[in-house]
Amino acid sequence: MGKNLTKRSEDYSKWYNELVIKADLAENSGVRGCMVIKPYGYAIWEKMQAELDRMFKETGHQNAYFPLFIPKSYLSREADHVEGFAKECAVVTHYRLKNAEDGSGVVVDPEAKLEEELIVRPTSETIIWDTYRKWIQSYRDLPILVNQWANVVRWEMRTRLFLRTAEFLWQEGHTAHATREEAVAEAVQMMEVYADFAENFMGVPVIKGTKSESERFAGAEETYCIEALMQDGKALQAGTSHFLGQNFAKAFDVKFANKEGKQDLVWATSWGVSTRLMGALVMTHSDDNGLILPPKLAPIQVVIVPIYKGEEELNAISERVDPLVKELRSKGISVKFDNRDTHKPGWKFNEYELKGVPVRLAIGRRDMENGTYEVARRDTLEKETIKGDEVVSRIEYLLEDMQQHIYKKAFDYREAHITTVDSFDEFKEVLENKGGFVSAHWDGTPETEETIKELTKATIRCIPLDAKEEEGKCVYSGKPSMQRVLFAKAY
Amino acid sequence: MGKNLTKRSEDYSKWYNELVIKADLAENSGVRGCMVIKPYGYAIWEKMQAELDRMFKETGHQNAYFPLFIPKSYLSREADHVEGFAKECAVVTHYRLKNAEDGSGVVVDPEAKLEEELIVRPTSETIIWDTYRKWIQSYRDLPILVNQWANVVRWEMRTRLFLRTAEFLWQEGHTAHATREEAVAEAVQMMEVYADFAENFMGVPVIKGTKSESERFAGAEETYCIEALMQDGKALQAGTSHFLGQNFAKAFDVKFANKEGKQDLVWATSWGVSTRLMGALVMTHSDDNGLILPPKLAPIQVVIVPIYKGEEELNAISERVDPLVKELRSKGISVKFDNRDTHKPGWKFNEYELKGVPVRLAIGRRDMENGTYEVARRDTLEKETIKGDEVVSRIEYLLEDMQQHIYKKAFDYREAHITTVDSFDEFKEVLENKGGFVSAHWDGTPETEETIKELTKATIRCIPLDAKEEEGKCVYSGKPSMQRVLFAKAY
Q1: In a mutagenesis test of the B interface, which of A85, A106, A130 is the best target, namely the one with the most B β-carbons within 10 Å?
Q2: Are residues B220 and B133 in the same domain?
Q3: Which chain A positions have a beta carbon within 8 Å of B34's beta carbon?
Q4: A140 CB contacts (<8 Å, ≥6 apart)?
C-alpha cells in the first residue's frame, strides 16, 4: 500500500512538495506564485488561527481591518521600509476593463488609469500609521493594541507552497505606545506568545533571539524572532516581532500629548506569523508515510475504520461505535467514523496515515467478538488492542502523549544539531555535512556576515536571547567578539 | 448630554454616516472608497462570522482559500460574468517599483510589466472553477461544498461605509453538484440559512424571493435573495444565493463521469453575504441616541458603571460587582465593568448608549445601601431598580426580550410598509410619500422594469417565494400578469 511519496532521505524538497499536495493541504493555482489552500489544509490553519487569536485577545489585543491597497506615496515615507518592499510590489494601475476591438476578450481600459498607483499591501505599517494619526491625540488614547488577519502580497520570484508564495495569509499586530519601554515590552511579549504557540500547540521547539541588522525588518530598530529547525537541517524563521521605535510615527506625523501636556512621537511595534507556519508544521514532524500532526491542531483527532462484509455487519459495528463517537465528542475530541463503502479499509488506513490523523481505531469481526478495538498511533505507528471500556481513556492518553512525544523528538533533533565551532573550516564542514545551527563568534559587522553568506549560504538566524557573554574571536575575521550567534542555512 | 447626532427625521443618510463613525464602527481611509473597520465594528463582524461559519459547517460546508488575483483571460470565459464585472475591476499590471530618477520617491518600474494583467477578485467563480476542474473527475468527487472568507474589490464610483465600498469583506460559498436538482436545493438551502441568520441573530426580518432577470447575478440562471427594509423606507439586499446552472462548468470545462460512466457537465451554486450586513444592522434598529444592537451580536452585552467619589467607595462597589461579573461571564454573557476614573458616569452612559450596549447597570451610594442596581435597557431606554439577588435573572430576561423586541419592532414596521397597489399613480404616490415595498403586478418584461426604474427609481427587489398566483394587469403596461412582485427604492 505505497503512498508513492518520495523518501526524505532521497530528496527532502521533493518529499515536502509531494506531501503538501497528496495530503490535500494546498496546490498551485493558475496564478503564478499563488496557492490554493484546500479544505484539509485550511482546517489546520483555522485551528492555528483560533489558538493565536485567543492568545492575542488574552494579552489585550483587538482585531480590526485596514485597506488592501496602499497609495504608492505612503510607501516612500519611511526610507528603509520602501527600500525593503519596492522590489516585490504588485501594483494596481487601472480600475476598468473594456471589450477588445477585435472581439478577443477584455483589455485594460487606458482611460481608466489611476491618478496614483496603488500597491497591494506587502505589510500594513504605512496604511495603519496613516490611520493612527487620526486615532491618537493624547496619552489617554494609548496604548493601541490592534491585530489584523489578512492576505498580503510579495512578488517573490521563486515560490514554494506555504513557505514562500506571492500571496499569503497572515496576522499582523500593530501597536502604539507612549514610551519606548512599553513598546519594547510589547514586542518581547509577542515573541513569547509566538514561542508558546509554536512549542505547545505546533510541537515545534524554537530558539528566541534578535536579528542582526541586515536581517532586520525594513523599518525596525530591533527584530525579535523565533527560529525552528527542519528535519533536513535547515532553519526556518517561524515568527517575528518588531520594535519599530518612532520611525513610523515620524514618517506619518503621529504625535500625542503626554501627561505633562508636551507633544511626543508615538512608539510602535508590529508582529506577524503567516501560513508559512503550515510549512514548518509539515517539515518538523512528518515522515515518509505522510503527515504527522500535533493532536492539538489536527482537524480530525480520531478516525474509526470499520472492517466488515455486508450491511448487517456494518450495522452491528455502528451500534457499538456510535456511543463511542458521542462520548469522544462530548469530551471535545473530533472524531470521524468512516463507514463509506466506496473505499476498502486498507485504502482508508493509507489515507489517514498520509493525512496525519493522530489516532486510528479499527474494528472488525474479532474485535466485535472480544469487545475490543485495534488502536494505532500515527507518530510511532504502534498498534495495540484495547478493551472497549478502556478505549476512551486510552485515546485521551495517546493524544496527550503524542503531543509531548513529537515535541520531544523535534527538540532532541534540534539539540543534536546545534554545533559549537571555533574555526571557519569547522564552520564550513558542519554546514556541509551535518547541517543545523552553528554557534560561532562573529565580529558584529555586516561585511563579515555578507561574506560568510556568500561563501557558505548560511545566514545569522539570530542572536539568542539566552546567550552568555563569552570572550572569543570571530570565526571568519578573527576580530574580537563577546557573544556567539547562530548561523544556519535557512528556508 | 447630546451625542451631536443628526436626527433620522432630519437627514437619514447623514445620521447613518455620523453614527457609523461616532460609534467607532468604521471610517474612511486614505484610499479612495476603502474603509477602515475599527475594533468595535470588527468585533460585531467577528460575531456575525462566527455564527455564519457555524451554520455553514452544520450544513456540511468546509472553508478553503483561493487566490486574490484572477488572470484577465479567466474573466472573459463566461460572457455574462465578464459583462457584469469588467467595468469595476482593479487591475494589477506591474510587479515592482523603482526609485524615481529625480529622487522624488518610487515609480512603477516599466520593465516589470506582467505578461497578463491580473484582476483583484470581484468574486471568485472563475478562479474557483478553474481549480474545480482538477478536483472533479467522477460523481464520487461530488458534491464539493466549499466556502471562503475573503476580501473582494469592486471599483464603485460612489461609496458609503459598509453599504458600498471598493473593498469589502465577505464569504462566498461555491458548490459543485452532480444534478440540477441538488444544486437548486443547495441554493435554496443557503438562502434559508441567510434568512435564519438575519432574523434570529441580526433581528432583521427579511423577504425571501428570486430576482428578476435583469437583477440577477452575472452568470446565474436564478438568484435567490433576502430583502430587508430600512427605517427610511428603502430596501436593502442582505444576501444572495445563485443557481449557476452549468455555465461555469462549460466555461472552464469541468466534467465528471456519472454513475453510468458518461461524461456530464457539473452543476454549480454560489452564495454570499458581506460587511454590507453591518450597514443593514445599523440602519434597521438604531435610533437618534445611537446604535441598538441585537444582544446576540453585541460585543459587550452588559456594562456596569460605578458612581462613586474616591477610591474607598470604588473599592466597596468593586467588591460587590466582581462576583456579579464572574457569574455573568460563567453564563457566557460578555460584561464590561467600566471603573475608569478618567471619565464621568454621565459621559459613560452616553458612550454606551451610542455604542448600543444592550444592558447598562449603574451602582451608586443608594444602591450600595439598598443592595440594588439601576438597570437600563438600550432599546426602550427604560430604567428599573433591581435587587442584587434578582439582577442576573433580570439581565438574562432582558437580553432575550430585547432580541425579540427589536425584531418585532422591525417586523411591524416592515409589515406596515408593504403596500398593495393597482394603478401606476398609486404606485408613484406610495413610493413618493410612504416608501417601503410596493406589491404590484408586472408584465414580466425587462423593458417595463427599466421604464419603471427610470420613472420612479424603484427596482424589483424580488419575486417573493410565498407569492400567491393571482390574475391581474401590469401596473405600468396593463398587460396580463399572474403574480405580484415587490418594488422598492433600494440601497
Answers
A1: A106
A2: yes
A3: 67-69
A4: B342
A389: its cell numbers:
471500556
CA angle (A329 as vertex; A323, A331 as ends), nearest 5: 110
Q: Please state, rounded to an integer, the average pLDDT across all residues of chain B.
A: 96
Looking at the fold, whether A281 and A304 belong to one and the same domain comes out as no
Please answer yes or no on whether A66 and B36 come within 8 Å at the CB atom. Answer: yes
CB < 8 Å from A in window 318-347 of B:
342
Residue A103 has a pLDDT of 83
CATH of the domain at A454: 3.30.110.30
Average pLDDT of the segment spanning A209-216: 96
**Is there a single domain that holds both residue A312 and residue A440?**
no
Q: Which of A239, A267, A285 is the last residue of a domain?
A: A285
Q: Which residue of B has its CA nearest to A120?
A: B92
Nine-digit cell string for A430 = 558542519
B178 and B326 together in one domain: no
Q: Is residue A265 part of a domain?
A: yes
CATH of the domain at A164: 3.30.930.10
Cβ contact, residue pair B76, A130, below 8 Å: no
Distance from CA of B434 to the nearest CA of A (A): 38
Cβ-in-10-Å burial (0-12, 13-18, 19+) of A472 comes to middle
Closest partner residue to B66 (CB to CB) among A36, A66, A87 is A36
**Band (B2; pLDDT cuts 50, 70, 90):** low
Q: pLDDT category, A1, cuts 50, 70, 90?
A: very low
pLDDT digits (tens, 9 = 90+) for B429-476: 999 999 999 999 999 999 999 999 999 999 999 999 998 899 999 999
Show residues of chain B in contact with A63, CB under 8 Å: 39, 42-43, 46
Domain extent for B469: 418-488
Mean pLDDT of A219-234: 97
pLDDT at A418 over 80: yes
Q: Per the CB < 8 Å rule, is A151 touching B155?
A: no
Q: Is the pLDDT of residue A2 over 70?
A: no
- Closest of B352, B345, B306, B347 to residue B325, by C-alpha: B306
Whether residue B92 and residue A67 make contact (CB cut-off 8 A), yes or no, is: no
Distance of CA A446 to the CA centre of its chain: 27
Q: How confident is the model at residue A4 (pLDDT cuts 50, 70, 90)?
A: confident
Using CB atoms, which residue from A68, A87, A169 is nearest to B96?
A87
- Inter-chain CB proximity A64 and B39 less than 8 Å: yes
Q: Are residues A447 and A305 in the same domain?
A: no
Q: Tell me the β-bridge partners of A481.
A: A472
What confidence score (pLDDT) does residue A467 get?
Answer: 87
B437 bridge partner residues: B418
The verdict on a CB contact (< 8 Å) between B94 and A93 is: yes
For the record, the C-alpha cell of A266 comes out as 508615538
Tens-digit pLDDT profile for residues B324-383: 999 999 999 999 999 999 899 999 999 999 999 999 999 999 999 999 999 999 999 999
Per-residue DSSP letter, B490: B
Q: Which B positions 135-164 lie with beta carbon below 8 A of chain A?
A: 140, 146, 150-151, 153, 155
- Identify the pLDDT of residue B4: 85
Let me know whether B327 and B436 are in one domain.
no
Q: How many CB pairs under 8 A join A and B?
A: 197
Name the strand (E) or helix (H) holding B310.
helix B310-330
- Supply the ipTM of this predicted assembly: 0.97
Task: Measure the CA–CA gap between B329 and A477, rounded to whole angstroms.
Answer: 61
Give the distance from residue A348's alpha carbon to the nearest chain B alpha carbon, in angstroms: 15
Q: For residue B334, tell me if it sits in a domain.
A: yes
Q: Do A108 and B93 touch (CB under 8 A)?
A: yes
* Amino acid at position A417, single letter: H
pLDDT at B1: 45
How far is B32 from A344, CA to CA, in rounded Å? 57
Distance between CA atoms of B65 and A35, rounded to whole angstroms? 8
